[in-house]
Hints:
Rossmann fold, alpha/beta, 6-stranded mixed sheet, 4-stranded parallel sheet
Amino acid sequence: MTIQSPKTLLPYIAPTFARHFKNxxxxxxxxxxxxxxLQEVVLNGSSVLQPLRDLDIQLIIKRDDMTAGTELGGNKVxxxxxxxxxxxxxxxxxxxxxxxxxxxxxxATATACRMIGLxxxxxxxxxxxxxxxxxxxxxxxxxxxxxxxxxxxxxxxGSTIHTCTPGEYGRLGSPALVQxxxxxxxxxxxxxxxxxxxxxxxxxxxxxxNGLGTWGYIEAVDEFMHQLDSCDxxxxxxxFASGSGGTAAGISLxxxxxxxxxxxxxxxxxxxxxxxxxxPDYFYDTITTIAKDMDIDISSFYEFxxxxxxxxxxxxxxxxxxxxxxxxKGRGYASSTAEELDFIIQFAVETGICLDPVYSGKALYQFMxxxxxxxxxxxxxxxxxxxxxxxxxxxxxIDALRAKLQSVSTVxxxxxxxxx
Length: 420
Ligand SMILES: Cc1ncc(COP(=O)(O)O)c(C=O)c1O
């Protein structure tokens, strides 16, 4: 066996069902441990999962929380296999990406960059941006940005973190912020020594969600289809969290094409994205933009008559026809209700599977409500919940989780000498 460097550019051949995309990547890296398992949830004395028992629903988890180690794991590594291959192929030496303070995407990007010898720059949106700056100017050693959750790993791999406020992010938009930092870093006056060569900076959009990153989830669909083939299972619903839209684009477009190609497969499952920010129209628009970026050709999905395609065949309608987006943001992005947090803990107690408060926990909590509100749509069905990772986000919620944690887990002084 030869050990392969993570920098090896592997020529990419797309699965045949994906021939409807004209914009196909040249290369991919191997960064993730694939395939991730499909795991059935055993309903043992469940309370939060009681509706599944009552309705005879089988819940299967696609464990993309297991794609890689803690520092690289979750859904983003699949996208990074394509994005960073492009960065290496283009001869870039640094990468900028952007996200929230506890961004899983930024943490995974920074880690992967270091694995392949690129320099990571993260723009993190934080309500503490001004505070951090003010404290710094008073005391050079002050480090109030902290080390909690994803930030610990961002810092362990030596990322340069550039903070901005939510207001700046909202006003200027993430592409403009990324471009502005890129201009700074590439400018000849930027602290690059004379003998050092000019930086060449690769830009990755928020969540890695563009046409190229989405190939990670086209590949994930191929992996999933092989798993279904080998176990002869019929799936009725596929459910996952959606934030920047790339995962939803890959799973919905990929599954639609894979089932369309494979006549032996029983009917296409219903595909549900649970939006953890914004509103459903934002997701339909974003996914339509991604599909166009991938240069999708949907003509063969519609019948022809008199040389013309029948019915309204816009890409946006195609996306809307094959994906149901649910509103799941609750209190807003990264803000949790007590019920959502209780659900995450109780789910972990009953299944041994840890969700996160920002994405997977919110999405499954919301989808359980959907099942309770529309029981007849789900009775006797088989549902796959695609767990996209994010468990480091729980660290930031420890204060809010504390009471529930104390009620499910006790800590006792052990009677080591048997005196009681
Ligand atoms: C853990 C986790 N799950 C789901 C998502 C949503 O994926 P996407 O941004 O592709 O919609 C993210 C995005 O940051 C994430 O970190």
